[in-house]
Amino acid sequence: MNASVISPELIISLENSLKLNRNEARSLHKNYGNSSLVTLMGLLNFDRQFVRAEGTRVWDSDGTAYLDFLGGYGSLNTGHNHPRVINAIERVRQIPNILQVTVPTLAGALLHNLAVITPGQLKRSFLCNSGAEAVEGALKLARAATGRKAFIYCQNSFHGKSFGALSVTGREKYRKSFEPLLPECIEVPYGDNEALRQALKRHQAAAFIVEPIQGEGGINVPPDGYLATAARDCRENGTLFIADEIQTGFGRTGKMFACQHENVEPDIMCLAKSLGGGIMPIGAFITTEEIWHKAYGTVEKATLHTSTFGGNTWAAAAGIAAIEVLLGEKLDAAAAENGSYFISGLLELQKKYSLIKEVRGRGLLIGIEFNQPGGLTNKATLGLASKLSNEYLGSMVAGELLNRHHIITAYTLNNPNVIRLEPPLTVSREDLDYVLNALDSVLKKNKGFWGFATSSAKTVIKTWTSK
Prior knowledge:
The chain is built from 18 helices and 15 strands. The protein has 467 residues and is of the alpha/beta class. Helix 2 (22-32) crosses helix 3 (35-43), helix 14 packs parallel to helix 17 and helix 16 packs across helix 18 (449-465). The radius of gyration is 23 Å and the shape is globular. It starts with 13 loop residues before the first helix and ends with a helix.
């Protein structure tokens, strides 16, 4: 439609947008967005309209409070709407936000702060807008600095869904529709130093990219010493070691960065999520002086990698404030202490309920994996029970926690049989105990996959008949 003839009355104003109810918002998404996703969210009543948030809690349009144990997939380490982050943005609202003909003041301060808090010789950062963009930049940097083309990545990894990031993401479901992706991307098993060593010998790789703990893969913690050995082997073969700390960074695992559990100093580190304080989208990759200079260290190369919104004033202010909160409130130490307490409670539930296969994680990045149906049940259904359970049991448990106990969580993308427990690092012991008791109740009521399937079916019927 010609913009000159569009009536302003056809546009939904901000004022009217804020007045939309749950059904109206859902209808807009169904008509103009991803309608299949709306259907999926609605199946277990995940399509509530949330209207307020503070700390570890959010409230829906009916006034019901929910405990957030999803935490924006690791974006809310400082909690919802932390007042210091909000105040930081308020303080800079008169400063130009996007202005390319300058070197932004607050971005400079954030660059300095990232160099201070990251391990080893990491010093020079590039500010961008998301985790996937940080990974893209890191891959480009590795190629430019080494002159090599190949990348090594891990099975079950998740680094994003843009082309470069997807090329080093280890789940076929997300890759298949977009192939061919980047050439010369070599997959190795996660946690297997010997497999990595052999790949490094066979390929002249620019970089090995790895999550210190696999998040979407199912909260997979590698064997002790894996990261340190991998970093050493990479350097012996001239391959850069990229640590993807997008989800594990900023205190989530009990250290400021998860690679610090093994005293690993990456060549490149990818950051995002909680760097924005749960308010602003911002990402970054950071590297050493030497690697940066090889890639971008001349005037001719200074503009080879740029971003229109990267380092904008509001995002930088949020990043500065988020780091201040993390350090000032010692949230990494809180994650270590509360994570140990929480995991201990979950392990007690594992002893009590055979449905729990494994509890794993570090700090407040925790996953619960469930056992699959076996024996006569699985044989009688020709394996269908196991297949359905693997794909949907995690979401069913999450649905029970949401609908009966008002706890928000979700399954991990690469392993839907695992639910993640990833609350803000400001979470209290009382909140942890509430979740432990809720899980106890849910598992006591639903003995296995079919029990959860029956409960979920009832929820679906109730949900859809009320819409």
